[in-house]
Amino acid sequence: MNESNAHISQIGILIAEASRLMRRDFNRRARDLGLSSAQWAVLSCLAREEGLSQVALADSLDLQPISLARHIDRLEARGCVVRRPDPNDRRVHRLFLTDEAHPLLQELRTLGQKTRNHSLNGLSTEQQEALYEALTRIRHNLSQCGGESQETPQ
Contact, 115 vs 22, CB < 8 A? Predict the structure, then answer.
């Protein structure tokens, strides 16, 4: 394996490590708000699509329902999220943001922007665009057929 291929073979590790370090940086910035990146992800997802069921939200965030329930419990105790019964299925609860969540979301977005700026420091606009395009393509490739490889055997 030549040097170029050796670097490419590490791409999954680098993506995972960069993601972990970005979460750690964000958590450090958000510590005073008392929220984790996982709780921010819940709020952010609900801001895009309120009224999701807990099961749909867990699936969207790739979390186990029990783990999501703990995050929702904490956010509900803070007054940021409310569970409402589904009018068509009494076993289902729909999730909605409260008025208290919106200023917090704005603060979290600002902290997220600071983390992004820090992580992209030293990359040109063109490099940032190329990174975005590459990661978008990787996500698309892996989202096909449940993440199974589309390659044909040789």
Answer: yes
